[in-house]
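Hey, I was hoping to borrow your eyes for a little while. A protein chain has come my way and I'm curious about its shape. Take your time with it, there's no hurry, and the full record follows here:
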Amino acid sequence: MAKKAMIEREKKREKLVAQYAAKRAALKETANDENLPMEERFKARLKLAKLPRNSSATRLHNRCKLTGRPRAYYRKLKINRIALRDLGSAGQIPGMVKSSW
């Protein structure tokens, strides 16, 4: 089980990313538009830099919804490999059969 602080920090980042997504996209569009004057594009870059760092989508990290573990994460199921194995062994996942040899 991951620390509660790490799980809460990740939730906070998700909220910030959702909150600033539209503003960030608009500023990026302005900054990358070649038809605009250089000064205007530079101002857009400065405004983009003033936004909170945690509002960037690249700072998000996938975590297991059950345990909060950041590694070995399956995107389709939103859980990690250990939780997947436990649920599969317990018969909680339809179509998943325990394998042993």
Notes: Residues 1-61 form a domain with the Helix Hairpins fold (CATH 1.10.287.1480). The beta strands are 73-74, 79-80. The helical segments are 4-32, 38-50, 81-89.
